[in-house]
Amino acid sequence: MIRSILIGALAIGVVGTSYWGYKEHQEKNAVLINAENTYQRAFHDLNFHMDALEEKIGSTLAMNSRSSLSPALAEVWRLTSEAQNDVGQLPLTLMPFNKTEEFLSNIGSFSYRVAVRDLDEKPLSEDEYETLKKLHNHSNDVKNELRKVQAMVIDHNLRWMDVELALASESEPQDNTIIDGFKTVDKQVEGYSEVNWGPEVNQLNEKKQNLSKNIEGEELSEKEAKQHVLDFLDIDKNASIDITTTGKDSKYQAYSLSIENPENKSSVNLDVTKKGAKPIWILMDRKIGKQKLSLNEAANKATNFLKEHDITNMEISESSQYERMGVFTFVYQQGDVTIYPDAVHIKVALDNGDITGYESIEYLTNHHERKVTEPTISRNEALEQVNPNVQIMEEGLGVIKNDLGEEVLCYEFMGTIENETYRIFVNADTGREERVEKMDGTEMNYDTM
C-alpha cells in the first residue's frame, strides 16, 4: 500500500516537473522569438531609413528655393534620427560600430543647423553644397553595403540571436556573416574623414564630449527617463514612445526618444542625458497652421517655458521669424553681465505657441557661476577700438569665448553702418577687438545689454 502511494506520488512529481520544464522551455522560446523579431524589425527598418535618407539628400541637391530646402533638410535630420534609433535597437554594443553612428549623428547635426537658419539671409554656401554631394555619395555607399547584408540575411535565414551569442562569447567571434557585414560598413565609414562638416558641427562635437563631465546626478532608467520626458513636454502618458540608448563609444551618454503624440498629431524626437534626463535637443514635426501669435507673444511663450523648467535668469539676445515660426536665442544674465556661452535656442510655432524646437547643449556644457572681475580698461578706451563710422545704439559687458576657446570679458557695442547692424566685442582687459558679428536681419533685444 505504502509502496503504491510512493510510486503514485513519484509519478505525479515526474509529471509535474516535466510540465514545469516544458512550460519554462516554452516561455524561454517566446522570449527568444520576441527578441529575434525585434532585432529583425530594427534591421529592416534601418535599411528602409537609409534608403530614404540617401534619396532625400539627393533631392536636396536639385533644390533652389528655401521653402523646399528647409523642410527637406529637416526630413534628412529626422531620417538620421530614425536610423540611429534603429541601430540602437540592434545587439551591436559589443562590436565597434561607432564610426557609423558618428557619421549619422554628424549628418543630423549638419542638416539640422542648415534647416533651422534663415536661408534667405544666409543661403547654402559652396562648401555646404559640396558637403551635401559627399554625404549623398557616402550614404549611397552605406545603403548598398547594408543591402548586401540584408540580402544575405533573407537568403540564408540568418538569425540576430546568433549575432548576440557570438558577440557575448568569450572567444573571438568566428565567421558570422552579419558581424562581418557591419564591420565592413564601419570600416568604410572610417574613410569618410574628408567630409567638411563646417565649424558649427565640429564645435558641437566638442561640446558633446564635454557634456557628460558637466551633468551631475544619478543615471535614470529608461522607464524613469520616459516619465520625465512626458512631464517635461506635458504629453499624455498614453503617447507611443520608442527609446534607445546611445552607444558606449558615443561622445555623450543619453537616451534618444521618438514620441507619437495623438493630441496634436505630431511626432517628437529628442535626446536627454542619462543623468537627470535633461533635454539636449527637441524637435517637433507637425503641420503649422495659420499664424495667430505675434513674435513678441511667442517670445513670452519661450520665456515661460524656460522658467517652468527652472532655467532662470535668461534673457532673449536674438529673435527672428521665418514662415510661421519664431526662433529665439536666450543667454544667461549674471548680474549686469551677459554670459553668451550659456545659450539656449528655442523655436515656437506661431499658430498656437507650441515649443517645436529646443537646443540646450551650450547651456548644459558651459553653465556655472563665474567670478567676473572688473574691466582693466575703461569703456571709452574700449570704444576707441571701434570703427568711428559705426553708430553705437547700445552697449554693455559680456563674456564670450575667443578663438582659443577661452572665456573673456568684453565690452559689447551694438551699432549700425550702411544700414547693417553689427555686434562688436572688445576685450575688457587688453583692448583687443575679439569679434565682429553681422546680425543678418535678426531682431536684437537691447534690454539685455
TrEMBL record:
InterPro entries xref list: YpeB_N (IPR048402), YpeB_PepSY1-2 (IPR014239)
Sporulation protein YpeB N-terminal domain span: 27-162
Domain Sporulation protein YpeB PepSY1 and PepSY2: start-end pairs: 180-372
GO biological process: spore germination
Stored Pfam families: YPEB_N, YPEB_PepSY1-2
Name of the protein this chain belongs to: Sporulation protein
Organism expressing this protein natively: Guptibacillus hwajinpoensis
